[in-house]
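Quick log. Single chain, no ligands specified.
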Amino acid sequence: MKRTAPKGPKTKSVSFVGEIVRLDTGLRHHVLPVPDAVGSAWRKAKIRRLVGTLNGQPVKRALQSHADGGFFLLFGQVLLRDLGLKRGSRVQVVLGPDPEPEALEIPEEFALVLAQDEAARTRWESLTLGMQRSLAYYVSSAKQEPTRIKRALDLALKLRTRTLHSDRGKSA
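-> predicted structure:
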């Protein structure tokens, strides 16, 4: 399935100093607020996927926005730990548009399962890129190979039988 990047002007990379803060929603996610002028320019240019560095460490994230305004990047605790960051950390940020916003890294274990399961692969190809990205992350986030294999097999079964969490309440 070929995907095309959104049309619109490209914006340059920007640098700023930010601080990791925790969401007030009670979830264990942390965010890095993005200056409104920067987020607005990217939103206007239809740029959502970003690449850059936090304190020199490479990151790929999606630009998110609050319902009441404001822009941020979302981070889970595992990624923060891997980057050596925590709530209150000040970070030097360099961000720009992802030159390949439609690129998707599929874990090897899951790619092998999809290659052998036509029904799961067909369903996988019908999903949105965002859903594919979330499911691929679920598999790749496991630290040990046996866990990644188990998740890949379980996910293929759920794709094939239309029993993903997002399938609840929907008819096939």
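The two ends are 21 Å apart (CA to CA).
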